[in-house]
């Protein structure tokens, strides 16, 4: 969840006139998000997604989680939270966390729940989402190994998660309780500075997303989403990049209707730019997606 507290609620329309919104994009570390969240969710609406029991989805701490961490932190630039910290400091910070593996697609943080934990993704992928008062699920940013979520836990006052975060099966995370991660930021001020740098990048993402909604058409938005996700979480195979994603997820991410997404995907399949399978897309010639 790009969950730094300052949030904007945006309504928009795609090229067919379909209205989307409001959806929440967090952009900076300032304590003003709670009132916005309360307006968007008058009585802690039920999530549109069936929420799995997180405890039952977690395995006990395993060596595989920490082997992932070792690979990630061998180059500290892959974990921006730990940049410019010594190896000894990184070790001290990481050893205070617990490790968990998720064996099913699981909602880890629920929108509106108390922000009592802080997370570092070490394997797999995750995505933020927001549930509108009408029950519509809006996908926000995707997360790769080395990225954090649950940043509301860093705030000095107890706060609520502004968005939900779900992980795909097979993902590994490190988890710190709120009091523990706040103690670490006091002991290692660079942690908080790195968090603010990450928050700045969230503002950049928000600006790019907003400008895309204003300036790009549906084709351009969907093409950018496909290429970005394929490069980020796609699996390389002999024929191209294989992406596990549904038409609905693509449509929500690009802020277009499912009908528009399906129509464009069918058109690109006819031109051999990609191959659409059930819940999967094989991206063969991404450069042709941007051709009119």
Structure description:
This protein is of the alpha+beta class. It has 2 domains: 6-212, Jelly Rolls (Sandwich); 216-290, Winged helix-like DNA-binding domain superfamily/Winged helix DNA-binding domain (Arc Repressor Mutant, subunit A, Orthogonal Bundle), CATH 1.10.10. Helix content is 36%, strand content 26%. It is built from 9 helices and 14 strands. The strands form 4 sheets. Strands 3-10-5-8 form a 4-stranded antiparallel β-sheet. A 4-stranded antiparallel β-sheet has the order 4-9-6-7. Strand 11 (235-237) and strand 12 form a beta hairpin. The longest helix is centred in the last third of the chain and has 27 residues, at 189-215. The chain starts with 5 loop residues before the first strand and ends in a 9-residue tail after the last strand. The model is unreliable at 1-61 (pLDDT under 50).
Oligomer: single chain
User: Using DSSP, what is the number of strands?
Assistant: 14
Helix content: 25-40%
**CATH class category label of the largest domain:** Mainly Beta
Mean pLDDT: 77
In the sheet with the most strands, the strands line up as 3-10-5-8
Provide the β-strand percentage band: 25-35%
What distance separates the N and C termini?
A: 34 Å
CATH topology of the largest domain: Jelly Rolls
What pattern of helices and strands is seen along the backbone? EEHHHHEEEEEEEEHHHEEHHEE
Question: Which consecutive residue ranges, at least 5 long each, have pLDDT under 50?
Answer: 1-61
Q: Write down the overall geometry.
A: globular
Count of domain modules? 2
Which class of secondary structure composition applies to the elements? alpha+beta
CATH superfamily of the largest domain: Jelly Rolls
Number of helices: 9
Largest sheet: 4 strands, antiparallel
């Amino acid at each position: 969840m790009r969950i730094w507290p300052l949030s904007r609620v945006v309504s928009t329309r795609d090229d067919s006139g379909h209205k989307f919104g409001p959806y929440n994009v967090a952009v900076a570390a300032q304590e003003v998000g709670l009132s916005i969240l309360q307006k968007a969710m008058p009585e802690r609406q039920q999530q549109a997604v069936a929420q799995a029991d997180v405890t039952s989805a977690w395995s006990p701490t395993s060596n595989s989680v920490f082997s992932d961490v070792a690979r990630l932190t061998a180059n500290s630039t892959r974990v921006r939270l730990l940049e410019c910290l010594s190896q000894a400091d990184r070790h001290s910070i990481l050893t205070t966390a617990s490790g968990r593996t998720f064996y099913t697609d699981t909602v880890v943080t629920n929108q509106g729940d108390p922000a009592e934990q802080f997370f570092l993704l070490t394997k797999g992928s995750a995505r933020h989402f927001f549930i509108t008062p009408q029950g519509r699920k809006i996908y926000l940013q995707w997360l790769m190994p080395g990225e954090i979520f649950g940043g509301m836990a860093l705030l000095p006052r107890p706060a609520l998660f502004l968005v939900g975060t779900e992980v795909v099966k097979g993902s590994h995370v490190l988890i710190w309780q709120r009091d523990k991660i706040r103690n670490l930021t006091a002991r290692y001020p660079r942690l908080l500075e790195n968090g603010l740098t990450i928050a700045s990048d969230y503002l950049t993402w928000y600006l790019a997303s907003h400008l895309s909604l204003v300036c790009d058409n549906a084709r351009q938005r969907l093409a950018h989403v496909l290429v970005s996700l394929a490069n980020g979480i796609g699996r390389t195979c002999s024929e191209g990049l294989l992406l596990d994603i549904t038409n609905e997820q693509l449509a929500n991410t690009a802020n277009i209707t499912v009908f528009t997404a399906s129509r464009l995907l069918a058109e690109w399949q006819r031109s051999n730019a990609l191959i659409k399978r059930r819940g999967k897309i094989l991206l063969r010639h991404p450069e042709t997606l941007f051709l009119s």
